[in-house]
Design a protein that fits this description.
Rossmann fold, Arc Repressor Mutant, subunit A, 2 domains, 10 helices, 47% helix, globular
């Protein structure tokens, strides 16, 4: 038997986790070594087991999947990340590219297509579902969204986006600080910058903006 790609599955829906684990373990070259329900739990698996590939659901409570991807890249540069989501949003695509992930697949794909995508990423390639690939173009500076306009959301730094996502989900500044591992004062500064850049000074309107931009689910 050849090399087995060691896969970590991360999804907050138990049924999806179990289905992925069962299906991937049927493949002769794939082995699911863990299944996490959120990004914080995933980071514990990453540190303990050093998977070859992480299949990471995008929209989960707690630590953002995109922040987790950045942490994974920092801790284990050779571990590859494939994002998975039921939604196709330009905001998601932009963040997937920002964290230099290896792909973005949709849950609407057939199991065979998803396995082919996982295998391609495991072998060192990149893989984007067809509906996502059609929104991309390759330029001299790499892959980017085709004909994308610079929205106000794109003026935010990655950390400011993280704070906005948590705010939109209803988290307090104290909880956000604990989740991101920073001080409450730092979170407050990020909130000020977010409001200034977006010209939105109401938390409810911030949440609505985040939904419109596809940063969180309605």
């Amino acid at each position: 038997m050849g090399y087995m790609t060691r896969v970590l599955v991360v999804d907050d829906h138990a049924l999806m986790r179990d289905m992925l684990r069962e299906r991937l373990n049927q493949e002769p070259d794939l082995e699911v070594i863990g299944a996490a329900s959120n990004a914080e739990e995933a980071m514990l698996f990453v540190e303990d087991l050093a998977p070859d590939l992480v299949v990471l659901d995008i929209d989960m409570p707690g630590l953002s999947a995109f922040e987790a991807a950045r942490q994974i890249r920092h801790l284990l540069p050779d571990t590859r990340v494939l994002f998975l989501s039921a939604y196709v949003q330009d905001g998601y695509i932009s963040q997937v590219l920002q964290v230099r992930a290896c792909g973005y697949a949709t849950k609407g794909n057939s199991p065979e297509s998803l396995i082919a995508c996982i295998r391609k990423v495991a072998q060192g390639g990149t893989c984007f579902s067809g509906e996502i690939e059609r929104r991309l173009e390759i330029g001299v500076d790499g892959v980017r969204l085709a004909n994308a306009l610079r929205t106000r959301a794109e003026t935010l730094t990655p950390r400011e986006r993280e704070v906005l996502i948590h705010l939109a989900r209803g988290a307090s500044k104290k909880v956000i600080a604990k989740t991101l591992g920073v001080s409450v004062k730092t979170v407050e500064q990020h909130c000020i910058h977010v409001m200034q850049k977006l010209d939105i000074h109401d938390r409810v309107e911030l949440a609505r903006f985040a939904v419109r931009e596809g940063m969180v689910e309605p």
